[in-house]
Specification:
By secondary structure, this protein is of the alpha+beta class. It has two helices and five strands, in the order βββββαα.
């Protein structure tokens, strides 16, 4: 699969989801919102699922980390 800058992918070797910052042939430079930057081989990456994409946002991360269901607001 061909990835472009800005795509959200999951690196299977590290089990991390990141945004494509740059493409260098068969290597992707990926970055997480925290600033963590790494390179991953294209053949070890796949398009992130909706849940994985949502986990990159602070609101989505809170929902995934939480073990209690959302409480209704009264």
């Amino acid at each position: 699969m061909r990835y472009r800058v800005g795509d959200i992918v999951t690196d299977g070797q590290r089990a991390l989801t990141g945004q494509v910052r740059d493409v260098h042939g068969n290597l992707l430079s990926l970055v997480r919102p925290s600033g963590y930057l790494w390179e991953a081989p294209v053949d070890q990456c796949w398009a992130a699922s909706p849940e994985e994409r949502e986990a990159l946002t602070p609101r989505g991360a809170l929902r995934i980390i939480s073990t209690t269901p959302d409480r209704p607001s009264y």
